[in-house]
Design goal:
Helix 1 (28-39) runs parallel beside helix 2, helix 3 runs antiparallel to helix 4 (113-132) and helix 3 (90-106) packs across helix 7 (221-228). The longest helix has 20 residues, at 113-132. The strands form 3 sheets. A 6-stranded antiparallel barrel has the order 12-15-14-13-16-17. The chain is of the alpha/beta class and 409 residues long. It has 7 helices and 17 strands. The two termini are 41 Å apart. The chain is globular. It folds into 3 domains: 15-206, Rossmann fold (3-Layer(aba) Sandwich), CATH 3.40.50; 234-292, Roll (SH3 type barrels), CATH 2.30.30.280; 297-405, Beta Barrel (Elongation Factor Tu (Ef-tu), domain 3). The record marks 142, 363 as: Interaction with tRNA.
Length: 409
């Protein structure tokens, strides 16, 4: 297996002497990881994280980490004959993921909580737990690959199955974490993983994949924000790009960048506004939803904060003119040609070769090797500000470096 646990020089000489903690979510992917490693002779220990009060989502299909999932993980571990622990991470998960999600969403951003979960919980606290258990490696069911880079470290690569690739959610992984992390499913397609689950006799072989954010059991993000940050939900105006007030809204949390339907304007918009209007910006400070034509959603460049670099050398040592990369601004989009320029303050400017559509602050922009066939993950950062492809008189001026230096909450 390309992503075997023993592919790093610091590992013991045999699988039997190598303890691997597997993060078991109760789904088919992590269950197969545990089964594969057990079959290969590794000393496997299963750990399931209880991340939130799962009462409301216990039996809801499409939500992960709920009570049913803990039950499934326990059953898989029992079938495989490996130790299994359920650890309570509710407090840390609430602080680092849920509360940050609510604050970011209320500010008009489009956060990606799965990135924060990997960054602050799975690859931080869980990794420390794995070390406490005497583990040499921590394995997960993510569809991504990690291999030796030939220089004593490890490099991250997109999964073989592009439709399952999860590299977008793992860009914040550090070089140090990569030394201990293992991703055995990087070279498999989902259908192959389900076939392996059947071969191992796992009851979760046909279990549906998680679709929703695990702590949003209703599937409605606004419910979480209204519950955790009610004071942030402020009614305001729907304003056209040219400054005209077109209507009212009940809070910016009810809108997303690029949204066309459900703006609540109806017959109020006519004449020159008969063309479809889209949400262009969410200004929580002014309680404004800014709308305009579709072409105003085209983005020429983005400013990033909190950049993580796992490419060659140091990010601050990149040439002043930057380097060519492939960039990805949403998990559902393919990487596109771009150039990244370090700003010297932990942030970056990414300029796209062709305009990107509907980019939103709070999302991640992930870097890949400019040779698309290489598929190496170079890092990424969080979008702090965007620069439209067309500059209209009523729009904001070009981005300034200071706008990319907003301190993280």
């Amino acid at each position: 297996m390309t992503n075997s646990v023993s592919d790093h020089a610091s590992q013991p000489s045999s699988p039997r002497e190598t303890r691997v903690v597997v993060a078991m979510s109760g789904g088919v992917d992590s269950s197969v990881v545990a089964a594969l490693l057990k079959e290969q002779g590794y000393d496997v220990v299963g750990v399931t994280m209880q991340l939130y009060d799962h009462g409301e989502a216990t039996h809801r299909k499409g939500a992960c980490c709920a009570g049913r999932d803990i039950h499934d993980a326990r059953n898989v571990a029992a079938r495989l004959g490996v130790p299994h622990f359920v650890l309570d991470y509710e407090s840390k998960f609430r602080e680092k993921v849920i509360d940050e999600f609510a604050a970011s969403y209320a500010s008009g951003e489009t956060p990606v909580p799965c990135i924060a979960c990997n960054q602050f919980i799975k690859f931080a606290d869980l990794m420390e737990t794995a070390k406490d258990l005497g583990a040499h490696a921590l394995a997960t069911g993510h569809y991504i690959s990690a291999r030796d880079d030939g220089r004593g470290g490890r490099a991250l690569y997109r999964a073989k199955d592009a439709a399952r690739d999860q590299s977008y959610f793992l860009f914040a992984t550090t070089r140090e974490q990569l030394r201990m992390l293992r991703f055995p499913l990087g070279d498999y397609a989902k259908a192959e993983v389900r076939d392996m689950a059947r071969r191992f006799g796992l009851e979760v072989a046909d279990k549906p994949d998680s679709q929703d954010i695990c702590f949003v059991p209703t599937g409605r993000y606004t419910d979480v924000v209204e519950k955790l940050a009610p004071a942030s939900v402020v009614p305001g105006e729907i304003v056209h790009l040219d400054g005209r007030v077109l209507g009212r809204h009940a809070g910016v949390i009810h809108y997303t960048i690029g949204q066309r339907r459900g703006l609540g304007l109806g017959a109020k918009v006519a004449g020159r506004d008969a063309e479809p209007l889209y949400v262009l910006r969410l200004d929580a400070a002014k309680a404004q939803v800014v709308v305009g034509p579709r072409e105003a959603l085209d983005t020429r460049a983005v400013r990033l904060r909190d950049v993580n670099w796992i490419g060659e050398g140091a990010f601050s040592s990149l040439p002043p003119e930057g380097i060519d990369i492939m960039a990805r601004v949403r998990s559902t989009r393919p990487p596109v040609p771009a150039r990244v320029i370090a700003d010297g303050d932990g942030g970056a400017l990414v300029v796209f070769a062709a305009s990107e559509f509907g980019v939103s602050p709070g999302q991640a922009c992930v870097f890949y090797d400019a040779d698309e066939n290489e598929a190496r993950v170079l890092g990424g950062g969080f979008i702090a500000a965007i620069e439209p492809a067309i500059m209209m008189a009523s729009k904001a001026p070009p981005l300034r470096a200071a706008e990319a230096r907003r301190a993280p909450r």
